[in-house]
Design a protein that fits this description.
Order of helices and strands: HHHHHEEEEHHEHEEEEHEHEHH
Strand content: 15-25%
CATH topology of the largest domain: Ribosomal Protein S5, domain 2
CATH architecture of the largest domain: 2-Layer Sandwich
Structural class: alpha/beta
Number of helices: 12
Number of domains: 2
Strand order of the largest sheet: 4-5-3-2-7-10-11
């Protein structure tokens, strides 16, 4: 293509950078994009920057300059959004620990440019009749796939903790400061973690963000735009100062899709930022709270003090309270 277009020759490092770009464009570390228009645009712009610098060949730095220029032409909305987070207009925590609150990660796509929108997800609970209320769905701001994810996590909760007793719970999930449609099930893992934190009365580390969908068995499933989600939370943390405790939880199935920016890779290599691959809800809640999730024994009992033990105890307490109210009803 370079010969056909009459461009400068590319050195081996520049070719490698174009290949990385192609894999990132495909969203898969094991595949390359065949969208040749995007590749051609990058080659032409890289050639421009190489000639402007009086290079005889296109270098990797020229390719990177072209990539940076493409992003710079499209990132105004992203920058304004992240500025609002830095000024605490949009509330996203990157330190401390809070019960029933977790950082979720959504994605906004504008033309060919996609970026993450961190979102605070909260959960509350009280005595009820087994209802799990998704506020977004109640006000018609939830797409069908997002609503499906909430129903699935509700099913998981009842199947694991209330198989032999009524689920005397009323729980409410909300995306805070969200004013548009939410779709996709990639927040269902974060929503479940927020709810378990509330029920167990155990705080979640706010220096971590979560993405992933959940199934009825508690397994974490792959999601889309994993690179953009990681990089979005990294940018927020980096602007506030990396502490070495910040990171993102992703589904283990998405590891093969990682094609992260160089500054994110360097920060991870230096131990300043972390990407945790999780396979199930127990791994996720353990990382978020620092307490063991706890595995059930042959009798279905969980280790004392574990997250699952605390959740089961709270649901049993609510069931007992509900039955006492029913027993006091006048005949």
């Amino acid at each position: 293509m370079a010969r056909k277009e009459g461009l400068l020759p590319y050195d081996r490092c520049a070719v490698a950078r174009v290949i990385e770009y192609s894999a990132r464009h495909a969203g898969d570390a094991e595949k390359l994009s065949m969208h040749m228009r995007s590749i051609a645009d990058l080659l032409r712009e890289s050639d421009y920057w190489a000639r402007a610098a009086n290079h005889d060949t296109v270098l990797a730095s020229d390719v990177q300059q072209a990539i940076d220029a493409q992003i710079r032409r499209q990132d105004r909305i992203r920058d304004r959004l992240y500025e609002a987070i830095q000024r605490d207009i949009l509330m996203i925590g990157t330190q401390g620990a809070v019960t029933g609150q977790v950082n979720g990660l959504a994605v906004i796509e504008l033309g060919g440019f996609a970026f993450a929108q961190p979102a605070r997800i909260t959960a509350t609970s009280r005595l009820g009749k087994g209802d799990l209320i998704n506020i977004e769905r109640e006000v018609k701001l939830s797409g069908a796939t997002h609503s499906k994810g909430v129903f699935i996590l509700s099913s998981f909760l009842a199947a694991r903790y209330a198989r032999n007793q009524p689920l005397a719970l009323s729980a409410i999930l909300a995306f805070e400061q969200s004013y548009g449609m939410i779709d996709g099930d990639s927040a269902s893992l974060a929503e479940l973690c927020a709810l378990l934190s509330n029920l167990a009365d155990v705080p979640i580390n706010q220096s971590l963000a979560v993405t992933g969908s959940i199934n009825q068995l508690g397994q974490v499933q792959a999601i889309g735009a994993v690179n953009e989600k990681i990089e979005g939370f990294f940018d927020i943390c980096n602007a506030r100062g990396l502490t070495g405790t910040q990171g993102v939880l992703i589904p283990a199935a998405n590891v093969q899709h990682l094609m992260l920016r160089r500054n994110v890779v360097d920060a991870a290599a230096a131990g300043q930022f972390h990407v945790y691959a999780v396979e199930n809800i127990d791994q996720a809640i353990t990382l978020l709270t620092g307490l063991p999730a706890g595995a059930a024994d042959a009798h279905g009992a969980y280790p004392e003090g574990s997250i699952n033990d605390r959740v089961a105890a709270r649901l049993t307490e609510l069931s007992t309270i509900s039955q006492s109210y029913q027993g006091n009803k006048p005949h």
